[in-house]
Design a protein that fits this description.
87 residues; alpha+beta; 5-stranded mixed beta sheet; two-stranded antiparallel ribbon; 2 helices; 15% helix; 31% strand; globular; binds FE2/S2 (inorganic) cluster
């Protein structure tokens, strides 16, 4: 599990190993934008303000993965214990 700090909403949530960030954010009452839920459409792309994402999507280039300032929250997770996202 890891923590996601939704900076714009002022909400901090815990993302369990059996759920996605989209699931956890939605369960917290926020309205994340998403479509495919499979890391291929780009609808759920979210800016990463702090922390290190673990990319599992099929969209970002290697440079974008390495930069780590954006992520697809339907499939990607976190390498750090905490991510701060622009949500
Ligand atoms: Fe399509 Fe996340 S919802 S990439």
């Amino acid at each position: 599990a890891f923590q996601v700090d939704c900076r714009r909403s002022g909400v901090t949530i815990e993302v369990g190993s059996d759920q996605s960030i989209v699931d956890a954010v939605e369960a917290a009452g926020l309205g994340p934008r998403y479509s495919c839920l499979d890391g291929v459409c780009g609808t759920c792309e979210t800016a990463v303000l702090e922390g290190e994402p673990e990319h599992r999507d099929s969209i970002l280039s290697q440079d974008e993965r390495d930069a780590g300032d954006t992520m697809m929250i339907c499939v990607s997770r976190s390498r750090s214990g905490r991510l701060v996202l622009d949500l």
